[in-house]
Amino acid sequence: MRLRQPSAETGLDRELSRQPRAVHAALAALVIVVVIVIAWLGISLAGALTAPGTDPTSARVAEWGRQHGLGWAVTGMEQAQYQLSKPKTGGVVAGGLPTIGKSSARTRPNASASQPATGHATATGQATTTAPPPPLAPLVHTTTLAGEGAWHDLFAVHGRTAARVAFLRPDSLHTSYYVQVIWMDPRLVSFTLYPGYKVPGAVAGAANRIPTAKLGSVLATFNSGFLMTDARGGYWQNGHAVVPLRTGAASMVFTTDGHVRVESWPGGAPGPGIAAVRQNLDPLIQHGVISPAATQANAAAWGRTVGNLAYVWRSGIGVRADGSIVSVVGPAMDVETLANVLHDAGAVTAMELDINPSWTNYITYTHPSSTTAMPTLLPPANPYVHADRYLQPSSRDFVAVYPR
């Protein structure tokens, strides 16, 4: 009978037999971790998609990606999408420029149209107003378009025109598009900043929608700035800095008496009489001079995504020498175009607000009753924005215009 010889590799064999079990255990643990991560991401994304408001799905996914470390991917996709869908050059405005007639907006519940505006009255008790600006000179000189640059009454306060709108093509290259320029009289209207529940987040004492008590008096709303992570600036309201303010940043400054100004932030904490400060990027116009960076591919000044040289939907706000406010919203603008339109509208200080059609808007309201607001988006048509955006919780901060 042959005896089995003991093997010198017996211990090694046992070790090798244990390795597959260890590998399987490690793989199982990795699978569990991956499943947990995917489940968490799925729940997180589902929460973003079902959050309150009217934000389009594409915008919700993009912002969710940026908030979860995927900004590089979102930016890459936005740049690729832009290359595929650049605004066309040449052509004519289909149907011509819109015309808007005078509208009578209720000044406040139970208020008489003949009641004088508070804070700005003459010796006779009649409200004083700011002189309307002259018509805007068209920026396209090769062709003419009926009504281009002419002002149309937009809404009234106490029987006086408080806002006007003009439409014009943004440059001689994109002649089939037009943008809106809104002029607002600070002697007849006041401005309030509302935070979004995501941008910048909750602020004590401030609503993220038009309050019910204000539905019967709100005249207009318009978008604010970038995500705070991209704005290169801060947000301060009701005595609280949600995001620290940056010295030199372009700033919308809201006073406690309802005025708004645009300035380069001088530094330090806001002083008495300031209700809110919303910063976004660098100043676009200062002392009547357009920033030289507006013509450069300067991501540090104007933000990343598609870049400041891309022609996309943009919005901006400026202040004229007489204190009146001008707002610009529309497609096919790069930063230089936006600056040119604001400058030609008389802005001596100005800043860019937001970009892309998901966020840029100017909405007016009429009032079928003293407690309701009927919203209307100003043209040009923006299919990504619902007119009732600010009548429900808003994810992004915005500005509301009220009678003074």
TrEMBL record:
Annotated Phosphodiester glycosidase domain ranges read 226-354
Q: Which sequence ranges are marked TM in the entry?
A: 21-43
Could you state a single Gene Ontology molecular function term?
hydrolase activity, acting on glycosyl bonds
Q: Which domain of life is it from?
A: Bacteria
Q: Where is this chain compositionally biased, Polar residues type?
A: 101-114
Q: Which UniProt keywords are listed?
A: Glycosidase, Hydrolase, Membrane, Transmembrane, Transmembrane helix
Pfam families to which the protein is assigned, alphabetical: NAGPA
* Chain segments annotated as coiled-coil in the UniProt record: none
InterPro entries, A to Z: NAGPA (IPR018711)
Q: Where is this region: Disordered?
A: 100-138
Q: What is this protein called?
A: Phosphodiester glycosidase family protein
